[in-house]
Amino acid sequence: MRDQVTIRLQGLEVWAHCGVTVAERAARQRLVIDVELVPAAVPGATTDDLAGTLDYARAAEIVVAAVAAGEYALLERLATEILDRLFAAWPLAKAKVAVAKPAPPAMPPLAAARVEIVRRA
């Protein structure tokens, strides 16, 4: 029997230049990002050694670096960039990234716009 380990980062708040229009990208906006990572293997579950798992602090740093890397017109593009960087950092079986923009400039008013992308190895 093999266990599946899922490591989650929930509610990571970042400020980004993200929006379809130039005016929307001009000012930084708050985004809320959730990440689910399923490593291909997690020997740390039995060894209790950080080297045998995915360091969630490093995963958060990767997300923040992706956001800071530039401007994004679409939440979908930002989520894809985050996934690319996470898969480059670790051997993952699966990952999901959700990016939400609270109170986007939309008619009618919304609580948030949210995009989720799931990628499997």
Task: Write a structural description.
The protein is an alpha+beta fold and 121 residues long. It has one domain: 2-Layer Sandwich (GTP Cyclohydrolase I, domain 2). The chain is built from 4 helices and 4 strands. It has helices at 22-26, 44-47, 56-68, 75-89; strands at 7-16, 29-39, 92-102, 112-120. The protein has a 4-stranded antiparallel sheet with strand order 1-2-3-4, with helices on one face. 19% of the residues are buried. The mean pLDDT is 94.
Keywords summarizing the entry:
121 residues; alpha+beta; GTP Cyclohydrolase I, domain 2; four-stranded antiparallel sheet; 4 strands
Number of helices: 4
Name of the CATH superfamily? GTP cyclohydrolase I, C-terminal domain/NADPH-dependent 7-cyano-7-deazaguanine reductase, N-terminal domain
Oligomeric state as shown: single chain
Return the structural class: alpha+beta
What portion of the residues fall into strands of 2 or more residues? Answer: 25-35%
The succession of helices and strands, N to C, reads EHEHHHEE
Question: How many domains make up the 3D coordinates?
Answer: 1
Widest sheet: strand ordering: 1-2-3-4
CATH 2nd-level architecture: 2-Layer Sandwich
Percent range for helical residues? 25-40%
Q: Which residue ranges are poorly predicted, with pLDDT under 50 across at least 5 consecutive positions?
A: none
The residue-averaged pLDDT reads 94
**Rg from Cα:** 16 Å
The fold-level CATH name is: GTP Cyclohydrolase I, domain 2
For the termini, the CA-CA separation is: 21 Å
Shape, principal axes of CA atoms: elongated
**Text of the CATH class:** Alpha Beta
Count of beta strands:
4
Sheet with the most strands? Answer: 4 strands, antiparallel
